[in-house]
## 1
Amino acid sequence: MAGFIMTLDSDDDGPARSPSPSPPPSSTRKTSSKNDAAPAAKGKKGKAAKGAKAKGKGKKLLDTVVDADDDEDTPVDSPRGGAADEEVRMDKGFVFDGLGGGFIGRERNSVWDSGEAYIQKRPNAMPRLSVDEIIARRAAIKSAEALLEESDGDEDGSDEELDDEELEKEMMRDLENGDLDFEGLDDESDDAGEDDEDDEDDEDESDVEEKEEAPAKKAAARKDVGPQIVGGGDEADEEDWLGLKEKKSDAGSEAEEKVGEDAELDGPSGFAALADVDMSDAEDDGDDDSEYDEDVSPADRQSRADAAAAKAFFTSHENSTTLSRKPLSFTTLPNCTLSRQLLLALGSLNLSTPTPIQAECIPLAMLGKDIVASSATGSGKTVAFWVGVLERLLHRDRKNPMTRVVVMCPTRELAVQVHGVGMALARYTDVSFCLCVGGLSLKVQEAELKQRPDVVVSTPGRLIDHVRNTPCFSMDGVEVLVLDEADRMLEEGFRDELEEIISAAPRSRQTLLFSATVTESIQQLTRLSMNKPVRVKIDEMGAAAKGLDQEFLRVRGDKAGESIELNSRSGERHREALLVSLCTRSFSSGRTIIFFRSKAQAHRMKILFSLFGKGLEKSDELHGDLTQEQRLRSLKRFRDGEARFLLATDLASRGLDIKGIENVINYEMPKSIEIYLHRVGRTARAGQKGRALTLVGESDRKLVKLAMKHAPPESIKQRTIPGDVVAVVSKQLKALEPDVRDVMQEEKEEKEIRRGNMELQKAQNMLEHEDEIKSRPARTWFQSTSEKNAAKNLGKAEHNSKFQEKTKKRALDEDEEPLSKAPKRTPFSGLSRREKRRKMAMREDEEDRASGAQREIGSSIRAAKKAALPGKIHAARPERTPGQGEGKKKKKGGKKSVFDREMGVADGGAASDKRPGKRERDMMKGGGGAKHSLGRMGPKPKKR
Ligand SMILES: Nc1ncnc2c1ncn2[C@@H]1O[C@H](COP(=O)(O)OP(=O)(O)OP(=O)(O)O)[C@@H](O)[C@H]1O
């Protein structure tokens, strides 16, 4: 990297062709020094502000030596970002080496450090113990006990506990002698016999393996010896489930490949045959793939259905920049000129060539257009929106400070990261930032919002909290609203919050939506009241990152009764052992993020990992049951390489950009293809390579095929693990079960103690500061607690049910309007017209009968319920006049509103039941009873 000296002159305020005139330098100076003082609110007065003052005093501009330390400190010290002096001359020896405090585009990034400034330090709070701390405490107690026993002369205790290695050796001996019975993993030789008819090639392959395997077993019990089948299946069966067998023979290639210790089976060219996945056919067992060929892809289906609406909704746009194939740089982006401050920041972060999404979106964002943009994971969407937004901010009216940009993210961690990236890009500007996310100190945020930061990065809930309860903060001046991970933000769980935020922001704002799986639903987008947005689409919907290898490992169902005994899903028994085997063998190097569907499972696995050891103890968990501090600490440890495994829920599935994640493991297939794409997108980012492995149960096959659909065939692999290895691990895990229970019990006790302490603290606070506490205005929220919980549950349901919804929707589509060229088979396919009509008529009759019966059942249930109700005591009512109907009129005459009563609409009164005739209306106009009653409610008639 070439070193250079950069001098920023007063013309650095704006580009040559700027959308709005640059403000005079004097105003910049003023704002700048004012902003420098802002961090004082956080108690970080001193250095920066003093330095700025000192510089201001000198007659000539002083040279400011910017070294790597300064850069590093700026954002950490001040969440408001590095307030740049308008004229900065750099040291001759200074070299932009890509490490000079950069946050992105380098190995060691520190975007999460920005969150640390917001962590509320509670000196009296009892720290929550991590699993590792509990285990370490237990170990210390155990060793102390052992020492005591030793000193008592009792040396038997140490022998009782079997050393891990000894246990392993013993089990391997058992295994070789055939004594070990691993339930659920069928003996390979048995299975080979059962599935002979499947494919002769497979038989040959297994022979070869066995020959290879025998000496290897002798040499080292745990050593892996090539492709084998795990999860109870035989090899033939395993190969079939991804459709490798036929493709392999078609291509005439060797499909087996040893990678690392475990084996992967490559999926060569023929995967296209499996690509068209019919999600609607729930009954299909997945063996007959021929009918999938006739299907239209989900993307086609979606685009056809929405084409007309989309045409009207979006401004037409062609990806001109990316199509031109000219080598681009940030300095030569067509139709826009970036400010030197931004170019400098981009350069210091090692970002010189814009990615396609950046090349397309930056000019559009600078023009103030609304954008709906999508591109694969890790393709640089964050920089794509920040650059445009920051460039606009450089031309703001500095005399009138207010929050002009709001960036919203669905998770706190993502918000912290996005905030960090924004600050890194704005380090040579005077743009100020505030991070407003749940779980971090409200007070710090309130103090910063008082300073009217230019940009607020937030999660929706906390933003609404501030809109409602922080007096100095309002969204009236918001000019740009960015929704990162827009499709998630538009899901049910965020719906109400988003509506509240949209209504608080001015209509004239610019709205930018970014996601790898951005919604195509115009219905959802219209809720944002965008102004003819431009749709920028770089990658095909559903496409995974280019350098990603996707592996699948089959998890066989349990033998009858096992899952019932375990009270878990089928195959659960094997998953833990499979995961541990994978992590101690093929995934033992590099950093791996492991996704779980539930917090409980992620936590249990963390305990198992810590107890198991062998490198697995270098792991951390990340899910909603942890405190925000713990969550950020886990991320930091993982990012810094202190933890090699991150056991996370979907909290970490979107947006997180951690350098050096080589592997992603899905402990189970997620519930929708979108979530799958985001999860596996945590690796293979920014043109890097990565691999994702998914443990696939019987019910996940359709989703696997969907994942394979958009992937290059050579990137799909089928992984296997030798059954004996899993058997050993499984036994070891079983042996750890009592310890797991003990750790969980200790955690429970800890929790109770913590809760007690908290209550005590609360009571003490109340006693000491009662007046102050009671005088504080109560914080308000736009939903009641029950509404909030209901929205949360709805969101969860929607988040988890995309797959089922799609299935239903497709089934419906098929009934209403067959979009595929070749219609799908229906129950009437292949019948003569007459026969078909007869069957259809019979079906309709049946449906009619069923619905009639249903109605009857419904009405009799209602009648029975009514009869069972105790009789009501009614006040005597005037008799109804004959001719008065029951239905609607009865309802009207029932419950009266206060308004009706005030209006003098008495029960049974004519006014209540009859619309006044013309004569009566005339009377009312001219004066009469009705006017009299209105007169009581309405304003006093003016005297003439
Ligand atoms: N122009 C660029 N040149 C090289 N690397 C870049 C460029 N822009 C961004 N990157 C790098 O790409 C990585 C991914 O960027 P980013 O997190 O913005 O991806 P994303 O598209 O938002 O991904 P996701 O969909 O997962 O949120 C970052 O580490 C960033 O440093």
## 2
Amino acid sequence: MSTLTTTPGSAAGDQLAAPAAAPANRPADRANPTRAVLMLEDGRSFVGEAYGAIGETFGEAVFCTGMTGYQETLSDPSFHGQIVIMTAPHIGNTGVNDADYESDRIQVAGFVVRDPARRPSSWRSRGSLDDELAAAGVVGISGIDTRALTRHLRERGAMRCAISSTLADDSAVNDPAAGDSAAGVDEGGQSAALAALLDRVRSSPEMVGADLAPVVSTPEPYVVPAASGTAQFKVAALDLGIKRATPAAMAALGCEVHVLPARTTGEELLALEPDGVFLSNGPGDPATADYAVEALRTVLRADVPVFGICFGHQLLARALGFETYKLTYGHRGVNQPVGDVATGRIAVTSQNHGFAVRAPLTGVTDTPFGRVVASHIGLNDEVVEGLECLDVPAFSVQFHPEAAPGPHDAANLFERFRDLMAAARQARAAVAGGES
Ligand SMILES: NC(=O)CC[C@H](N)C(=O)O
């Protein structure tokens, strides 16, 4: 299986790297718009204007329903290899600032908006989003019917796509004006350039089978110190695509967070003598990343507390023996309702996932690491959104308690992790006391 190795604005995958003769991505000119095409794997296409950089890019088309937080979305490493469609029609209204980035670069493979802000307005803004995308070489498209596109993906599922603003001839495109019915796929009448683009989309790498965490992970370990005072707990955090807000949330609770590359082994994690091990969110298919699953099993055997979010939740599930599967179109946005099974409380959560864990919604499952229950359930479609181990100190959630962007309903989960680490330390002290 080929692996998506997208760099912003470039073709997805080595085998799809732009031919040497292709023009380099260059900023779109707002005064003289350049025509751009979004081509889906099933042949449906949309015509709009180049937005951000002019060029050609490939990735999985996914839609995000957040009304706000486009900067955090763009820089979330979990979106690596994906072309993100914003369902909110006005994007870029507050420009860009340096505080809202969740990693050191824009991570999406491409960006689709309906109606970009012509002039950003915010006291924090230092520039416009389209200039920022152009400077980063990120190819985008604007002025298309994002509602029709989203409905198409809801019916047909997330699929590969391309954005191209460099086609020689795109005159005969299957335009959204032709209607947004699911049956509106019309490959007939397309120009040779469009047919060739469709071929390129269909030979681009798929998200299923893509092992992308090592591509976005930190090459070297680094430490985020406790936000104030002496650190109370040492956390070893496996960076599978971590967002800045995550170690910051743990540091605010008195943790010293050691952020480690994706391929760190279980033995290396334990050698740090951490109070707890954290597994981050990340891009790609959780059915890959066997290295992290193995590391996690080593940690679980050592009875060290574990907390996983999103990709980390999926990997904890795999370590326990559950399987993961691909959702039709996933959950991406800041308004996803989740029920806490134990308390009956509902949290509105931030989510960004295309895969999910296959586990029973009710009852207790026996696993090699003891009994496990589903702790959280997605209220839109009954997807397992959390797991709790009853016999080892481990739990995980599919959503994002770090909430960047998003509501803070789930922030208490970091406190739960801290309390789990405190309880484990007390238990160790009691055992040591009993032995002496
Ligand atoms: N945000 C994440 O960690 C996403 C996890 C995984 N890549 C998925 O799409 O389901």
